[in-house]
Amino acid sequence: GESVGLHLPTLSVQEGDNSIINCAYSNSASDYFIWYKQESGKGPQFIIDIRSNMDKRQGQRVTVLLNKTVKHLSLQIAATQPGDSAVYFCAENLNTDKLIFGTGTRLQVFP
Amino acid sequence: KAGVTQTPRYLIKTRGQQVTLSCSPISGHRSVSWYQQTPGQGLQFLFEYFSETQRNKGNFPGRFSGRQFSNSRSEMNVSTLELGDSALYLCASRSGPGRNNSPLHFGNGTRLTVT
Prior knowledge:
The complex is a heterodimer of chains A (111) and B (115). Chain A has 111 residues and is mainly β.
């Protein structure tokens, strides 16, 4: 279904630690997934994407894992930095051109 | 390359008025989408345009409309504004429709406040 975000879950990590942000997607027919980062006052910024024929994809300091069996997506950020503080959204794509966004997770990085 | 540009950044309107928001996509991108972002409902798809044609429409009332010009620039219009229309309106562009094209890249949005 469509995203509903009344309360934003928060993940607090110490600078230098690894972060794992999780997302449960809604439709088993979704075949394309994207992670976005949104900083205050800005629009969502593309981080990394993955197609359903893969279960892992790596970028610079980020890794996305896809588990289609349980409809779960995760974003791992290595050596988290203060600049990583933001709200992170996962999005899924069905056979249309619209994205269905998750509720978002706020990542707070402490020194 | 310049990113997606949205104007204005902030807008205050009163109930019953109408508003037009503007979006210039990334150069070379021909597909433009609009999303509404609110604290309560999160990011919700409004519509997508390609080659001046609306390809998909989200679950919003007919007061919400849009169009795309031949240079790929897009506008969205909201008529008879309601308090619940207060939101961040985000425009996103990509090279073309379909998931085999580049992912959506978003602008910084227009913050609309309806009083």
